[in-house]
Specification:
The protein has nine helices and 13 strands. The protein is of the alpha/beta class. The protein has a single domain, classed as NAD(P)-binding Rossmann-like Domain (Rossmann fold, 3-Layer(aba) Sandwich), CATH 3.40.50.720. The strands form four sheets. Strands 3-2-1-4-5-6-11 form a seven-stranded parallel β-sheet, sandwiched between helices. The protein has a two-stranded parallel ribbon with strand order 7-10. The protein is globular, with a radius of gyration of 19 Å. Bound molecules: nicotinamide-adenine-dinucleotide (NAD) and uridine-5'-diphosphate (UDP) (2 copies). The site of one uridine-5'-diphosphate has 9 residues, from helix 3.
Length: 323
């Protein structure tokens, strides 16, 4: 694998970042993990603290950073609606100023840089599945805009640095991803439903539950990210990464109740503003360029995630969990 040796991962104490670091270290890389612990947690990286190939910096990407590395994965940004809406101005700053700083760093170092973009750039999409050439349907002034427009602007910056400064970029549009180390209180649907089911609390389906999402298990996503990072410079993306198996939120609730054996009732709550009605990636490009497609079926991924939260809620240290 041609991924270079000294690797910076921003947002490395988060859900996806910590899994990515595990894989990078397993391939023999030295990783510099940067995080301001806004949503990431130390337990996600405890198991790496004594590893000589791992180094941690507490830093906010909205401030300049001067380090020497061979490649950069930029994942720093709160990802769940309740977290990114808590301080929306900071969310936009993280996406936009963070991108500028990491791109400036990559420009000085002449190194490859990966951006964790999102399916949210498609907003509430009018086409299904979403292909990379779709420009999206995004509200610029709603409660989700700080995240959606911040990530869209970051994509603009990545492609302008690519065109203007010849930067070697990899922009991935990540679709809903789940697995161990999701934050139990981050409000995302998979973690919410599993935690509610395990506690015997009502399962909160927003709206009528007919909205759809397509859920990718974290190990599949990390594999795709690594393969993408290893493609030639002529393959900058944007590239959809996700699992194209689409499911309604009601069906997901039922599946989790069944799998946990919970006695929870399914209850309805109001649908948040601008909640996308449907979402499913067209992954033809990833299949062709990366020779990749998801390998973990929803049932298997959910059962690993349920086992993780079960141990977490019963007080067992969660750090040992990986893929
Ligand atoms: P997460 O919240 O677990 O991880 C984000 C990490 O970034 C956290 O550790 C957080 O503390 C850190 N962070 C936030 N603001 C920062 C700042 N200003 N400076 C430094 N660190 C900061 O979320 P995640 O699910 O692991 O998401 C990782 C990335 O992938 C994010 O950029 C997110 O937008 C993107 N993404 C995730 C999904 C998904 O389904 N999980 C989908 C699309 C895109
Ligand atoms: N930057 C950084 N580390 C570096 C180089 C740059 O954090 O090693 C930041 C710095 O804040 C700068 C931004 O990246 O303003 C953009 O850098 P660029 O060289 O593109 O533009 P500049 O603002 O320096 O003209
Ligand atoms: N959702 C839900 N109940 C919850 C949390 C979320 O019904 O407790 C719904 C939410 O309205 C959305 C879908 O599940 O339609 C996915 O939400 P999530 O916040 O996980 O991700 P995103 O909306 O960013 O795709």
């Amino acid at each position: 694998m041609s991924i270079s040796k000294q690797i910076l991962v921003t947002g490395g104490a988060g859900f996806i970042g910590s899994h990515l670091i595990d894989r990078l270290i397993a391939t023999g890389a030295d990783v510099l993990c940067l995080d301001n612990f806004y949503t990431g947690t130390k337990p996600n990286i405890y198991h790496l603290m004594d590893n000589v190939h791992f180094e941690l910096i507490r830093h906010d990407v909205t401030f300049p950073l001067y380090v020497e590395v061979d490649s950069i994965f930029n994942l720093a940004c709160p990802a769940s609606p309740i977290h990114y809406q808590r301080d929306p101005v900071q969310t936009t700053k993280t996406s936009v100023h963070g991108a500028i700083n990491m791109l400036g760093l990559a420009k000085r170092l002449k190194c490859r840089i990966f951006q964790a973009s999102t399916s949210e750039v498609y907003g509430d999409p009018k086409i299904n599945p979403q292909t990379e050439d779709y420009w999206g349907n995004v509200n610029p002034i709603g409660p989700r805009s700080c995240y959606d427009e911040g990530k869209r602007c970051a994509e603009t910056l990545f492609f302008d640095y690519h065109r203007q400064a010849g930067l070697d970029i990899k922009v991935a549009r990540i679709f809903n991803t789940y697995g161990p180390r999701m934050h139990p209180n981050d409000g995302r649907v998979v973690s919410n439903f599993i935690v509610q089911a395990l506690k015997g609390e009502p399962i909160t389906v927003f709206g009528d539950g007919s909205q759809t999402r397509s859920f990718c298990y974290v190990s599949d996503l990390v594999e795709a990210i690594l393969r993408f990072m290893d493609t030639p410079k002529e393959c900058p993306g944007p590239m959809n990464l996700g699992n194209p198996v689409e499911i309604t939120i009601s069906e997901l609730a039922e599946r989790i109740v069944e799998m946990t054996g919970a006695r929870s009732q399914i209850v309805r709550r109001p649908l948040p503003q601008d909640d996308p009605v449907q979402r499913r990636p067209d992954i033809s490009q990833a299949k062709a360029e990366l020779d990749w497609q998801p390998a973990v079926p929803l049932e298997e991924g959910l059962s690993k995630t349920i086992a993780y939260f079960d141990e977490l809620l019963s007080g067992t240290p969660a750090a040992k969990f990986s893929d």
